[in-house]
From TrEMBL:
Signal peptide: none annotated. PANTHER family: ENOYL-COA HYDRATASE, MITOCHONDRIAL, ENOYL-COA HYDRATASE-RELATED. Keywords: Lyase. Belongs to the enoyl-CoA hydratase/isomerase family. This is Enoyl-CoA hydratase/isomerase family protein. It comes from the Bacteria. It catalyses: a (3S)-3-hydroxyacyl-CoA = a (2E)-enoyl-CoA + H2O; a 4-saturated-(3S)-3-hydroxyacyl-CoA = a (3E)-enoyl-CoA + H2O. It comes from Agromyces lapidis. It holds the Pfam family ECH_1. InterPro entries: ClpP/crotonase-like_dom_sf (IPR029045), Enoyl-CoA_hyd/isom_CS (IPR018376), Enoyl-CoA_hydra/iso (IPR001753), Enoyl-CoA_hydra_C (IPR014748).
Length: 271
């Protein structure tokens, strides 16, 4: 976490959304504050991803990153949290969970591109993405207990799903930070890269591979993976069965099967 002293300006928005063809790049731009998650940043992130959702199949994927090269996000804005009452603390946590839910509900995949610190709320934000790519300079942790707090933006929920319950408990209870080697070995980071340039090149290459597939199918798969995680097998199975049936409602499913049978490349339309 950080004290978050960098002010917002009209000329330099704290969250930038750029387009690269069918892909979006969402950048948290508070480098002087190590991209701390202030209330304004959380609101801007919610607006950014809600806007991408409104674009529908025109958005085939997104990258989420932090500016400056030192941090993805070093945590929540402690200056904003310091004087909170319990009720205000709950409201702050709800704002973080709201952003995570919007990211998870976006049909297109979102890759967290981490270069530097991903701590506290930063790690929780990355965990809300579909997977994490990171540079060798990156480190991860949930240090909230060192401040008398607990993870409030989803760490107790999503970290165990990513690394297993035992390691998640150890990381949360100790507040210790792990580097790229341990993060990859634990399954927290899907792929590692030598530097920022290679990170973004690799992430874009992955989005291009995904974009070759049927957008409705990718969206349905994401929906099941998000909704079924942590559910009993019987419940998760029903979610998959329903989504499998939904795939048969799409034109892309008809085109994909026809192309396979006719031994040609499919011409998906996103419908």
């Amino acid at each position: 976490m950080t004290d978050g002293t960098s002010p917002a300006t009209a000329e330099q928005p704290e969250v930038r959304v750029e387009r690269d063809g069918p892909f979006a790049i969402v950048t948290i731009d508070r480098p002087a504050a190590l991209n701390a998650l202030s209330p304004a940043v959380l609101a801007a992130l919610a607006d950014a991803f809600a806007g991408l959702a409104d674009e529908g199949p025109a958005v085939r994927g997104a990258l989420l990153t932090g500016a400056g090269g030192r941090a993805f996000v070093a945590g929540a804005d402690l200056r904003a949290l310091a004087g909170h009452t319990p009720a205000e603390g709950e409201e702050a946590a709800d704002a973080g969970h709201r952003v995570a839910a919007i990211i998870e509900s976006l049909p297109a995949p979102v890759i967290a591109c981490v270069d530097g610190f991903a701590l506290g709320g930063g790690l929780e934000l990355a965990l809300a993405c579909d997977f994490i790519y990171a540079t060798d300079a990156s480190s991860f942790g949930q240090p909230e207990v060192k401040l008398g707090l607990i993870p409030g933006f989803g760490g107790t929920v999503r970290l165990p799903r990513a690394v297993g319950l035992a390691l998640a408990k150890e990381l949360i209870y100790t507040g210790r930070r792990i580097g790229i080697e341990e993060a990859v070995a634990a399954g927290l980071v899907a792929r590692r890269f030598a530097d920022r340039e290679a990170l973004f090149a690799g992430a874009r290459e992955t989005l291009e591979l995904i974009a070759q597939n049927a957008a409705p199918a990718v969206g349905l798969a994401k929906r099941v993976l998000v909704d079924a995680t942590g559910q009993p097998t019987a419940t998760a199975t029903l979610l998959e069965i329903a989504a499998f049936g939904d795939a048969f409602r799409t034109d892309d499913m008809r085109e994909g099967v026809a192309a396979f049978l006719e031994k040609r490349e499919p011409r998906f339309t996103g419908a």
